[in-house]
Amino acid sequence: MTDTADPLSSGGDTRLAVASGPLVGPVLRRVVGMLAARADLPLDRLDDAVLVADVVAARAAAYAPETVQVHLHPGERTLWLRVGPLDVGGAEALLSETAPDVGSIIRKLADEVHVDAEGSSGEYLRVCVAYDG
Q1: Is 119 left (phi over 0), alpha (psi -120 to 50) or beta?
Q2: Which CATH architecture group holds 13-130?
Q3: What is the pLDDT of residues 48-63, one digit of tens each?
Q4: Exposure of 99 by Cβ count < 10 A (0-12 exposed, 13-18 middle, 19+ buried)?
Q5: Which of 41, 53, 110, 124 has its CB surrounded by the most CB atoms within 10 Å?
Q6: Which long-range contacts (CB under 8 A, 24 or more apart) does 95-99 make?
Q7: How far from the centroid of its chain's Cα atoms is residue 8's Cα?
């Protein structure tokens, strides 16, 4: 079961900022893998979290031209990612179709997805990958 309160406001969080470019993918992939393991996600859900990170890494630089920022919060069998700030429309663009006939990979793999607009500071994409079994 996931908690819909803002889990990204508590301790134990990891904040990551990587200059837009070729290092976003490898860095984000490794950090998400480590934190998904810390959250005690089973291997299939850990893989799903890494796939979500891959989509974010591949597409976020277009909406965060200087630095891709991700705030991660591992919980009990949950991992929250908060990506942003992104340019207006960036969060929805990350959720848009990524392959013909597949649809949004993030929406298919995540247990919860939220887009938060914070005025002039931009948009944030919040994604939760969890295991309830």
Answers
A1: left
A2: 2-Layer Sandwich (3.30)
A3: 999 999 999 999 999 9
A4: exposed
A5: 53
A6: 95/125, 98/55, 98/59
A7: 12
pLDDT tens sequence across 17-51: 999 989 999 999 999 999 999 999 999 999 999 99
Average pLDDT over residues 75-87: 95
Parse the chain into domains and list their residue ranges.
Answer: 13-130
β 112-117/78-86 pair status: unpaired
Please state, in angstroms and rounded to a whole number, the distance separating the CA atoms of residues 77 and 72.
13
**Alpha-carbon distance 43 to 41, whole Å?**
6
Q: Are residues 36 and 53 in contact, defined by beta-carbon separation less than 8 angstroms?
A: no
